[in-house]
Amino acid sequence: MEQLVDSIRVPCPHAAHGCETKPTYHDREAHARTCAHAPCRPHRRPARMAVHGGDHAAAAFYVNLRDGFNFLAAVRGHTQYLFLLNVARAPFGRAVSAVRIRPHAAAATAAVSSSSPATVCELQLSYTYCWNSSHDDLRRRVVHCQTSQFKVGCTGLSNDGLPDPSVSFQFVVPKYVPGHDAAIVKVKASVNIT
């Protein structure tokens, strides 16, 4: 009887996402929990998401970033692009790394489409902080401004994983800036998709 039960094979619950594995019926759930084709699950912390859309793909908008994963969605025409911005504290400040998340169907089949890895996405992040400094009874206005513009890599997450923020990051909020320890860092973002 056990041999009969072990001979019953069923498609993976994530077959629609490209998994071709056919586990035994009684191992189906165990396989589903570890399947590389399973839908992405956000980090256990609450995810933050900002959405930008419309005809002006490069229009600037403000995003509040917190430590951990932050999601940013950009819409161009009928296509939506999802970006993951990972904010991590580092000895020099806060490092921000960004990747574009490739849809599962494209990740599994590497099909060329309007949201394929061949699509070039550029992200521009700007941070400005103004404060008044009083040193030796002199009142001075101090302004810190920085802008970074970079091409965003693409990942399928299940196969590629995330870049290590201690090794690879595209934007940094320096530690010397007042407000660096605040829970939220407000940055201006602009997405250019070609």
Automatic annotation (TrEMBL):
Could you confirm whether the keyword Metal-binding appears in this record? Answer: yes
**InterPro entries according to UniProt:** E3_ubiquitin-ligase_SINA, Znf_RING/FYVE/PHD, Znf_SIAH
GO MF annotation terms:
ubiquitin protein ligase activity; zinc ion binding
The residue ranges of the SIAH-type domain are 7-67
The record's annotation in PROSITE patterns points to: ZF_SIAH (PS51081)
List cellular component terms (GO). cytoplasm
User: Is Zinc given among the entry's keywords?
Assistant: yes
Keywords of the record, alphabetical order, are: Metal-binding, Zinc, Zinc-finger
Q: Know the name of this protein?
A: SIAH-type domain-containing protein
Source organism phylogeny: Eukaryota, Viridiplantae, Streptophyta, Embryophyta, Tracheophyta
